[in-house]
Amino acid sequence: MTTTTTDQTTPEITFDSFGLDARIQRALAEQGYTKPTPIQAQAIPVVLLGKDVMGAAQTGTGKTAGFALPIIQRLLPMSNASASPARHPVRALMLTPTRELADQVYDNVARYARFTDLRSTVVFGGVDMNPQTEALRRGVEILVATPGRLLDHVQQKSVNLSQVQMLVLDEADRMLDMGFLPDLQRIINLLPAQRQTLLFSATFSAEIKRLASSYLRQPVTIEVARSNSANENVRQTVFQVEDGHKQAAVVHLLKKRAADGLSRQCIVFVNSKIGCSRLARHLEREGINAAAIHGDKTQTERMQTLDGFKQGNIDALVATDVAARGLDIPDMPCVINFDLPYSAEDYVHRIGRTGRAGASGDALSIFVPADERLLVDIEKLLKRNIPRTPLEGFDPTGANARAEESERRRARSDVRRARPNGEGDEPRPRRNDPASSRNAFRPSDDPFFSRPYEPSGGAAAAQPDVTESHAAAFGRGRPAPKRPLAALLGGVPRKS
DNA sequence: AAAAAAC
After folding, report:
1. Closest-approach nucleotide to residue A270, Cα vs C1'
2. Which domains are delineated in chain A?
3. CB under 7 Å from any atom of strand B: which residues?
4. Which residues in A192-231 are b (16+ Cβ under 10 Å) and which e?
């Protein structure tokens, strides 16, 4: 196995030196690209030679262009302008773990290939299949996909993978974590054995190595940063607060940054979907431009939120780990961990959203004593200590903390209101979250809890979010009950 | 423990 390793210094080369087609160079010029990033400098020549690649690259290293540009180059001689699917078989397949990442990879591919005749499209779940099917039937050379939806299309015979010459497994570690291995195996079995395979992963775990050894041939290993090590441009700080003061602490941090004239944009990571929506609401009440993104949001909402964030209409993107990896959000000045992640590797991915391409960044974590073990695991993985710092000027008994306390009271009052003979307060609609108040929890709706929510009114319809209502009913951090609701309410008879 | 991903 050949191994190439560099540090973060950009080699003194330009995109001209790769001998890319004029049509690609024109697209690059239009994007304002002149100097390749380290991973591009290493990957592009290797991919152009047709070699398999095992790439360790974090998000934000320019990885996508690193594989997309040479792939487009290699496909060019085969492209033609005829509009029949038979003449536009899928020749390059790019698989990603999440829908957003698929969309972003596609977006890049389409931009780099825009002056060529190559066609590309993207397929992922959560949206109507028909437009995807039509695009596939018209024929594309480059297909970006999430595994599940791709197999769906394969089953419906709307795509044929027998002509694929280049396969990209992007964020392969993530795909394995998410249990995509069987899907990946099924997909790869549909591809010709004679092909070029590129595998990118943030870490080279034993599983990744096993995957590589079964599907890659004499891969060239490309590594731009030591895996499992966080970027040195990122200032990591852990703020220790008392349990129950986390929301107030985040508000304090965000307002402090704004007051210090630092960029207001940041991603705030939360471990649960409930906590994610809850924190976003809380920040909004505190006058911070915030929005939640997590897996219970519709695909449309997720894309709109991401767009709003990229355009600067949203300052604080409150996210679950849906956003930890892959999402290509340029130049994040700051990442905040509202919760420390359950796995130390996720910590690396989360803070990898900042301090990219040589920029400096802040990774701030809220730490409560109960999370000691999580922090120790992170320190072990990073092989360094992260000092616990008191939060300067933070007054947990001040206005912020009072707001947090009132939120807890509100949550408890929702439970009282939910009782059939409810001695609860006046209903108080939640500001900034019409869906949640419209779908306020009603015990007579109980079946609601025993089956998953099925959308009925199209993408634009309000989302009666089961977990949201749970949050409202049961307060902070409680998991959705597995028992019937009546049992939880203490023997209130259940209508059926 | 949690999140993500196909219908």
Report:
1. B2
2. 3-223 (3.40.50.300), 228-496 (3.40.50.300)
3. A 97-100, 124-127, 129, 146-152, 155, 177-180, 271-275, 294-296, 320-322, 342-343, 346, 479
4. eeebbbbbbbbbbbeebeebbeebbeebbbbbbbebbebb
